[in-house]
Amino acid sequence: MSNPSPHPDNNYDPAGNTQMFRAFVDEKPPVEQVQQYQAQSRSRVGLIAGVVIALVVIVGVVALALK
User: Fold this and answer.
1) What pLDDT score does 63 carry?
2) Rounded Cα distance, 39 and 36, in Å
3) Whether the Cβ atoms of residue 23 and residue 17 lie closer than 8 Å to each other
4) What is the phi/psi pair of residue 5, to 5°?
5) Which one-letter DSSP state was computed for residue 1?
6) Any idea where the domains of the chain sit in the sequence?
7) What is the C-alpha separation between 61 and 29, in angstroms, rounded?
8) Which distant-in-sequence residues (6+ apart) come within 8 Å of 12 by Cβ?
9) Please, which residues have CB within 8 angstroms of residue 15's CB and are 6 or more apart in sequence?
10) Contact in structure between 28 and 35 (CB atoms under 8 Å)
11) Do 26 and 19 form a contact (C-beta atoms < 8 A)?
């Protein structure tokens, strides 16, 4: 029975040696991934701001209704 290797050939372990680790750390993400992340964070900020504004409006309406 053969011993299966813990890491397949196409999945290298960057901690295996210093050169591979440094190449892994210095690797830059593609521009598309950076732009996609920025777009997601912008939409997330807009969503949070919208929820906060909606809550302020609701609290204001309730406060006026109770006066």
Assistant:
1) 94
2) 5
3) no
4) -75, 145
5) -
6) 14-66
7) 47
8) 20
9) 21
10) no
11) no
Q: Indicate if the pLDDT at residue 3 is higher than 60.
A: no
Whole-angstrom Cα distance, residue 65 to residue 57? 12
| Tokens read off for 3 | 């011993």
pTM comes to 0.43
Tokens of 17: 């040696």
Model confidence pLDDT, tens digit, residues 34-67: 677 777 777 778 888 999 999 999 999 999 999 8
Instruction: Supply the pLDDT for residue 10.
Output: 64
Question: What does the pLDDT read at residue 43?
Answer: 73
On whether the CB atoms of residues 13 and 23 are closer than 8 A, the answer is no
Residue 44 is encoded by which pair of tokens?
Answer: 């997330």
